[in-house]
Design a protein that fits this description.
single chain; mainly alpha; 9 helices
Length: 248
């Protein structure tokens, strides 16, 4: 109904004016099907990896920091070698808007992680090996992003698939809990959205290149892929390096 009012057709790309209300409506109604699945399967949110204990909240916070620092370092290196430009006058805008961006990013990440790395992963790995299930779910996760933007998302499909795999790995590292995956996902969404909305960074070349990605899409370039791989490596060592880590 909302799509009809906005003039959106399923086979058409979503315009910027249509995207925000469609995304907000989708995430607002998502708790209902999630609740329905838990009732149908006689499962709790904890069975899908979602807990709100102090240990898991700590895991969430650490993951957000890891994601933001990792992406920030990636962007800093790109700026140092001239692949992008920083606009220091936008820092105050970033500070003012960060709380709102962080809340929205964590809300979006929570829904997506509960659905993809929680419910879908649990259901599919009942019939498939865990990593085969992860590859299938990550492919679905990547392809569904085409609903919002087709041309630019198409460049990022391999990167989005890898992102999904890293988030499955994060759940495994955290002993089956979603907090680590939720925090990483939310941290990345927060950092990218904040930089984009405030104009903190711009790219001198609109077409992009092999490092920053086709059309400057982060998951279409080598820098974004390397950031994901290094993050996967880092979270594998965190449980062994820190006695505070609440995972396995």
């Amino acid at each position: 109904m909302l799509g009809r009012k906005l003039g959106w057709q399923p086979w058409q790309a979503v315009t910027p004016a249509q995207k925000l209300p469609l995304v907000l409506s989708l995430y607002c109604v998502s708790p209902l099907p999630i609740w329905a699945v838990t009732q149908w399967e006689y499962q709790s949110l904890g069975d899908y990896g979602l807990h709100f204990s102090s240990a898991q909240l700590l895991s969430l916070a650490i993951a957000v920091v890891v994601a933001v620092l990792g992406l920030g370092l990636t962007l800093a290196v790109q700026g140092k070698i001239g692949l992008l430009q920083w606009h220091r006058e936008k820092w105050w805008d970033l500070v003012k808007l960060s709380p709102l961006f962080l809340i929205l990013a964590l809300a979006i990440a929570l829904v997506e992680e509960l659905i993809f790395r929680g419910i879908f992963q649990n259901q599919l790995q009942q019939d498939l090996p865990a990593w085969v299930a992860a590859m299938v779910i990550s492919a679905i996760f990547a392809v569904l992003h085409l609903l919002w933007e087709r041309r630019l998302t198409a460049y990022q499909l391999p990167g989005l698939w890898l992102l999904g795999m890293v988030l499955v790995w994060a759940r495994l590292v955290d002993g089956g809990n979603l907090a680590l995956a939720w925090g990483l996902h939310g941290g990345w969404v927060f950092a990218l959205a904040a930089c984009d909305a405030t104009g903190l960074i711009t790219y001198p070349c609109s077409n992009g290149n092999i490092w920053v990605g086709k059309a400057n899409q982060p998951l279409a370039g080598l820098a974004g892929i390397i950031c994901l791989l290094l993050t996967a490596l880092a979270i594998a060592f965190l449980p062994r390096l820190s006695p505070l880590w609440p995972g396995v």
